[in-house]
């Protein structure tokens, strides 16, 4: 387990992962000291491949965030995100640069020292970092103040990084900040790669991460006695202040030595338990390429692709099947000059490193990537990709078990997959669990293991207008477009089909379109009148008159039935299946489900592919959305999936798996109930305009100050600063929250704490903390800190009423065997 430091922890904001320390003596002295100590370092157990924050995956800043996380310079939030767009403060920047320059231990030493800045207190979470940064002349103040809570400007970040490399502002050409900006943009540093921001703008977390990452490999400098700029001796880069960097050719396709080592530049390197391959790449994609290996404590924490793109050539093998040898040649399509093979070249085929000369064969037309040497005149690595299965239809994914690897089944067989399998869906990085039935996949496998899977999800629907055959290719014209079949389908002209297409828009599968058991045969009954006299020819008969909205014609219709639908007027408002004779006349009705608000279910989740109420149902191309909001006035229409949002009420007619119809009975979008809010009271505001008066309260919610509109009655509730309150919306159709309830502190004992299950007792009552629980600590001086479950653990070591008081709210949810879920908990330290 490796300890990492989060450099973006701040007060009064949503907290990234909490920091923990090991100073047990300090922890025993006071709860405040405990919380401060625990705001330094977080120990996190992670899998063999460290997780990348979900909101930077596929973004330009991904590699930078991954590298800095691996180095312990930066972390994300507890919810698995990084929030690259969030601002950071000057205090946080001080922490960034102190850790990045290898001075974290010095920050601990100086955290209790009186700062030179008059607006920085001793023993704050940031005090030691600001003291070190000032002592190292990395940061500057303003008229004796540091302004720790101010947002950081772009040029301030640049200046701090330039100083970290050894440059001095006074020795640079020009006036500040142009002098540091020009130096940062020099070839020696090249700090602005991938950064789009201008002078004067605030720098967000993503920008800071990219700037720091860009600077890590810049050389450290110093000034000699004559103030001439020289490199430090021995030569060193910024990153070497906190770790070690090795560059070389990656000679594996996966981990070796029992999944503990990689081979780079001819040497083995042991990887850390939570090492990361940056940029969303897999180890198998790096074979033969130049990579950068970052080590901390002698173990690899990050591997980054550093291959010069100018030294890479890709294409198809132009000539017939060829066996490569040292000093041989290879020619790619579109290139007339053969590439010379270097002695001892690497040969990787379908993800496997091939060492036997006789097996270094390439089929004609195979996809080839050539990695050239530094001079660019010889091929140092040949990466061959030959599909082992193409145009296969995905069937299922089976997760890993104790006796076998995870598997993907397609209509041609089974292949195993693991964390090193490259999976792409419609050209984007994906997981095996993202694939769906009938996705068309192309597989590259080495033996039974899939090295890569390329999937596409492409469909079309229409009638076959004509066919044509050119050579071996038979094509079908559908909706004016010609589609070539992959294999013989024998489609019929004039018949409508659903087509599954591959990446080249060729037909892999075609199924005849049959009317959904829904659209042509269903309708919504809006009114029923019994015993209506109807003239049939010359005879008057008594029938039931059924008025309905036909989903066959999308119009209002009337049917007269005899003895087939015995219902009263009150039994209207059903979605029903209609039977027709050959003339199209309604002959009978089967009623599957009533359409009432009481019989409806709340939508909890909805997407283009699924809807969830009490159960989850697939949304398919045959799903029909029915708008029944005005059913009371006998008005029904066909709607769209976009009309339905979370918290709406619907009736779902289904076949146990797929939603045939989604009937919207109540739209709660305009008057949805506001979610209950708990937080620490900050202030109230009353705003009067010509149109009326608006009341609002500001709360500290999980460290971030948020403003909520409330009713006049809620606004009038007596409440004190830093008191825990809850806001409840009791009248969703009105503006804001109607109820503001205060939670008083009490001398209730916290006991029986279980850090594994996060359960504990408050005054002998069982409670549990979940991922949604908020933790606050108020110290003896009234300072508020956002904490973690450790604060609960520490409180239990003291005596309630003597060492602390506690206030808390519960969500109303009971977990497990009777544990009340805690929404927020405030532990106040007593003098």
TrEMBL record:
Annotated spans, Disordered: 1-21
Query: What name does this protein carry?
Result: S-layer family protein
Keyword Ubl conjugation attached: no
The organism's taxonomic lineage, starting at the top: Bacteria, Bacillati, Bacillota, Bacilli, Bacillales
- Species of origin reads Paenibacillus prosopidis
The SLH domain is annotated at 48-111, 113-175
Ranges annotated as biased composition (Polar residues): 1-17
Which Pfam families does the entry mention? SLH (PF00395)
Which UniProt keywords are listed? Signal
- Establish whether keyword Signal is in the entry: yes
Name the PROSITE patterns on file: SLH
The regions listed as transmembrane in this protein's record are: none
Question: Where does the record locate the signal sequence feature?
Answer: 1-50
């Amino acid at each position: 387990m490796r300890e990492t430091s989060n450099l973006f922890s701040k007060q009064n904001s949503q907290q990234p992962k909490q920091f923990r320390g090991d100073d047990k003596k300090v922890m025993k002295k006071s709860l405040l000291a405990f919380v401060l100590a625990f705001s330094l370092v977080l120990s996190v157990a992670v899998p063999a491949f460290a997780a990348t924050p979900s909101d930077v995956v596929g973004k330009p800043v991904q590699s930078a965030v991954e590298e800095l996380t691996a180095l312990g310079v930066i972390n994300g939030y507890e919810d698995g995100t990084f929030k690259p767009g969030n601002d950071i403060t000057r205090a946080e920047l001080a922490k960034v640069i102190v850790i990045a320059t290898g001075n974290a231990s010095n920050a601990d030493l100086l955290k209790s020292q009186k700062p030179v800045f008059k607006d920085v207190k001793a023993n704050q979470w940031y005090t030691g970092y600001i003291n070190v940064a000032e002592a190292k002349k990395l940061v500057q103040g303003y008229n004796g103040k540091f302004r720790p809570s101010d947002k950081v400007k772009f040029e301030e970040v640049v200046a701090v990084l330039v100083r970290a490399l050894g440059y001095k502002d006074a020795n640079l050409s020009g006036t500040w900040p142009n002098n540091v900006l020009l130096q940062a943009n020099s070839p020696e540093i090249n700090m602005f790669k991938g950064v789009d921001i201008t002078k004067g703008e605030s720098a967000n977390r993503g920008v800071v991460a990219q700037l720091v990452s860009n600077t890590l490999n810049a050389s450290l400098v110093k000034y000699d006695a004559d103030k001439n700029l020289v490199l430090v001796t021995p030569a060193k880069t910024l990153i070497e202040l906190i770790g070690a960097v090795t560059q070389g050719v990656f000679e594996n396709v996966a981990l070796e030595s029992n999944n503990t080592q990689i081979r780079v530049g001819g040497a083995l390197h042991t990887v850390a338990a939570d090492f990361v391959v940056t940029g969303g790449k897999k180890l198998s994609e790096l074979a033969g390429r130049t990579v950068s290996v970052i080590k901390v404590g002698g173990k690899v924490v990050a591997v980054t692709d550093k291959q010069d793109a100018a030294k890479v050539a890709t294409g198809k093998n132009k000539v017939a099947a060829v066996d490569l040898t040292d000093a041989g040649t290879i020619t790619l399509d579109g290139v007339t000059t053969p590439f010379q093979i270097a002695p001892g070249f690497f040969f990787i085929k379908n993800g496997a490193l091939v060492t036997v000369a006789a097996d270094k064969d390439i089929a004609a037309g195979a996809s080839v990537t050539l990695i050239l040497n530094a001079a660019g005149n010889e091929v140092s690595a040949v990466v061959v990709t030959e599909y082992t299965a193409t145009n296969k239809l995905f069937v299922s994914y089976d997760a890993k078990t104790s006796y076998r690897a995870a598997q993907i089944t397609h209509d041609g067989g089974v292949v195993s997959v693991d964390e090193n399998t490259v999976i792409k869906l419609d050209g984007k990085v994906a997981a095996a669990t993202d694939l769906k039935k009938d996705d068309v996949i192309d597989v590259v496998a080495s033996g039974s293991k899939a090295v890569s899977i390329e999937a596409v999800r492409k469909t079309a629907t229409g009638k076959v207008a004509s066919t044509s055959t050119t050579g071996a290719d038979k094509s079908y014209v559908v909706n004016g477009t010609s589609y070539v079949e992959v294999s013989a389908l024998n489609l019929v002209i004039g018949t409508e089909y659903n087509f599954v297409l591959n990446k080249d828009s060729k037909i892999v599968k075609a199924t005849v379109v049959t009317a959904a058991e829904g659209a042509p045969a269903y309708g919504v009954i809006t009114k029923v009148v019994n015993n209506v006299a109807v003239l049939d020819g010359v005879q008057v008969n008594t029938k039931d008159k059924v008025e309905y909205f036909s989903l066959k014609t999308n119009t209002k219709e009337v049917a007269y039935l005899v003895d087939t639908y015995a219902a009263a007027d009150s039994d209207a408002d059903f979605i029903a299946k209609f039977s027709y004779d050959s003339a199209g006349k309604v002959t009978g009705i089967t009623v599957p489900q009533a359409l009432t608000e009481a019989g409806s279910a709340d939508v909890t989740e909805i997407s283009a592919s699924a809807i969830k109420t009490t159960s989850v149902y697939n949304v398919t191309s045959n799903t029909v959305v029915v708008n029944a909001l005005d059913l009371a006035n006998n008005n029904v229409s066909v709607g769209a999936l976009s009309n339905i949002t979370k918290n709406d009420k619907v009736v779902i007619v289904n076949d146990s798996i797929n939603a045939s119809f989604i009937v919207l009975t109540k739209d709660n979008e305009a008057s949805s109930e506001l979610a209950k809010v708990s937080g620490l009271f900050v202030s109230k505001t009353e705003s009067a305009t010509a149109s009326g008066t608006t009341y609002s309260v500001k709360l500290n919610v999980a460290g971030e100050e948020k403003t909520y509109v409330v009713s006049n009655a809620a606004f009038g509730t007596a409440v004190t600063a830093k008191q825990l309150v809850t806001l409840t919306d009791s009248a969703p159709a009105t503006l804001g929250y109607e109820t503001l309830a205060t939670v008083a502190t009490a001398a209730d004992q916290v006991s029986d704490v279980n850090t594994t299950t996060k359960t504990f007792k408050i005054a002998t009552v069982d409670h549990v903390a979940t991922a949604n629980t908020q933790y606050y600590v108020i110290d003896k001086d009234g300072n508020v800190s956002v904490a973690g479950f450790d604060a609960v653990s520490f409180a239990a070591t003291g005596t309630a009423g003597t060492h602390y008081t506690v206030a808390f709210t519960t969500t109303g949810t009971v977990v497990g065997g009777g544990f009340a879920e805690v929404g927020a908990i405030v532990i106040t330290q007593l003098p």
